[in-house]
């Protein structure tokens, strides 16, 4: 798969830009810092894999353009297709357009990428200078995790999962641990099994004690029933003793009541009811007399008003004229508003015509006609004129740019021809570079021996320090023994230890100085070519190659410039024809509208709108005049109607004004309305009095009827007989009330059955006291026996409770089963984790065995080429599990023994090798972002040579801010990222 073209509508600082990747498999994008290289790289990732909404917010354009764009890809299986992705559409989801016009979704793109994700792509097919910063040691296990990340999320996640599995398994079970869950569960099950055995032995005695408790409970219940009966009998005796005075009162009231008549006819609460009726009748009778007087007065007043009032026909005619008067006033106000509006419109029209200053008067507007297509014609003329002027301006600008570019190319061509070296000079410089490289290889061998001496020196110095520090620690330990051993021997021992430690340290330091002096006196072979001469030769060769490439490019650009001149000539002829046609159309408009000659073409459109506005104002003025005439006629007709009314109503001829007649009319209507209101008020008062009179009569009949009802209930005819019978009835009620009170008091002492017994019996106080003493003696004996039985039952229950609550057998058994099931669940979970870990380890081993050798072979080849074969191979140590490199003299170095630049070259070689191995399955472009920061000029050139070779099979996109990297690109395309994008081959 290859990227053909990137079209950016808006992404960060990029907007409305197109970058072509189709002309070469190796594309170098060169730009200074902050030029947008990293933003462009993020755009490519966004188009291929998408970004999260939070990360997309970081790349919203500040110019207001919509975020997104299109990326054209070429797939050998289906050809070209375009990926379109916008932040505001489909929540950033991709839409793919194939060459045959079909639309595809995000899932289809994911399938075309062979399931590649953003994390996997960045781990395999992309790296930058930031990736080099964390490189120190790389083990074989780490390399296997990187390879395994082809189908997963990356090496860090795999290591994290493996550690999580170990931690979870350790938390569940350890063979010799106590804290893990399974170990604690096993200990708990052993304790429960022991408790179950003890509970089984105690179950036998539990049955015997249960039988004894049942027998004691039966005896106690029987004793409680007998005791309850005796207490009830005692309570009944006590109640009779307490209620004895009330019983005597009850018998007295009953005897008095039997002496009176058994029944008497008298209404309930008859006296009070009779007095209330008399009190209520007195004010009602007074009210009846007042209402009759008021009624006579209201009827006389109404008769006088009807004699003084005008006829209804005259009143209705007056009301109609009054309504018309309201319309008359409104029309008068409207007439004044129309006059003001007309004056305003005339002033506005005059000002508009004066402002136009094209010789048009108000009378001319009546003759002026602007058709519906006039505005469209004038707009098109203005637009065509502006378009032609813009095209002339663009043509002149392009002509100046073409002349300047052609002149610059010719001058640059002359300059480059003088700077190109001769063939003999080129051969001489190449010989100088080759000689220096041979000398450099010899010098590297000397540096390797020096490096080994430095490592040995560091180890010796460390040993000397350890001896010295050890002697001091030993002396301190002996110093602590002064309190235990003989002080003289201890001090001697301390001095001997210090002398030995210091002496060994001094001897080792002196030995190192002697060896260092011997190493420094070794002579090196003299150099025949200096580094400065080599650098100069290298730079001259590179510059000569760039000059030759630029000279060839300039010749191609001069050919393109000649073609551009022919195109400009054709455009000039076309513009002249357009200009002549436009002038003819303008002359036609001058013939129709002569006043347009006084107006510049650019102002025709505003003039059209101004004329349309003036015509609209002119028509409004005419409409206002017509409305004024109509309103004036209606006002004159109303004045005539008013005069006719007053002549007919009072028979007098009047010459008063309209305002005075309207006031007379209002007074007439108001007086008539007030008279009607007074009549209506009197009618309401008469009606109210009639209603009140009827109400009063009804109220009086109600009380009179109640008075007769009381007489009938008491079987009397006069008021005196009624009060005598009331006295007898009150005496009977008084005894009945007292008897009921005593009866209620006694009912609180006795139940219904007990009261019947009391009424039948005639016991005296002495007999009741003897019966109380007998019941008390029986109760005391029963309570003593009950306490004895309860004590025995409590002892048996206590033993039973001890057996049931200490460790119940059923609960222990249930808990034992529950805990055993929990142990089985933990064991299943541990087995699942164990299986998952073994599968993960096996998967990692398979991936390492499948890809490791191929990756290391390619890494060795690239690393040897980058270092000019100073190092021959790269391998993984089987013992220490880290990567080692081998030099030409068969010396192995670990990664931390290499320089920073060499370490970066090793990492780059490894990443390129992994990408190449994986590209057989995932043919995706390889992206490099400023990864050659620590490379010198020679290794940079070798790196570009490797990339050009890989680019024959796989597309490579290189971002860089280094000028020497850009100049080293030969068989690829260089894109200069500045304010605009400039491309050179």
Tell me about this structure.
The protein is α/β, with parallel strands linked by helices and 985 residues long. The chain contains 25 helices and 15 strands. The strands form 3 sheets. A 6-stranded antiparallel beta sheet has the order 2-1-4-5-6-7. It starts with a strand and ends with a strand.
Write the layout of secondary structure elements.
Blueprint: E1 2-10, E2 17-20, E3 26-30, H1 37-49, H2 53-56, E4 68-75, E5 79-86, E6 94-98, E7 103-104, H3 106-112, H4 118-124, E8 126-128, H5 129-133, H6 140-148, H7 155-172, H8 181-242, H9 244-259, H10 270-308, H11 312-356, H12 362-367, H13 374-419, H14 423-480, H15 487-520, H16 531-592, H17 604-650, H18 658-714, H19 719-747, H20 752-760, H21 765-806, H22 809-866, E9 871-876, E10 883-887, E11 892-894, H23 900-919, E12 926-929, H24 937-950, E13 956-960, H25 963-968, E14 973-977, E15 981-984
Parallel strand pairs: 3-13, 3-14, 8-12, 12-13
Antiparallel strand pairs: 1-2, 1-4, 4-5, 5-6, 6-7, 9-10, 10-11, 14-15
For the termini, the CA-CA separation is 22 Å
Mean pLDDT: 77
Can you give the helix content as a percent range?
A: over 70%
Overall shape: flat
Strand-residue proportion? 5-15%
Could you give a short description of this structure?
The chain has 25 helices and 15 strands.
Keyphrases for this structure?
single chain, 985 residues, alpha/beta, 6-stranded antiparallel sheet, 6-stranded mixed sheet, 25 helices, 15 strands, 8% strand, flat, disordered C terminus
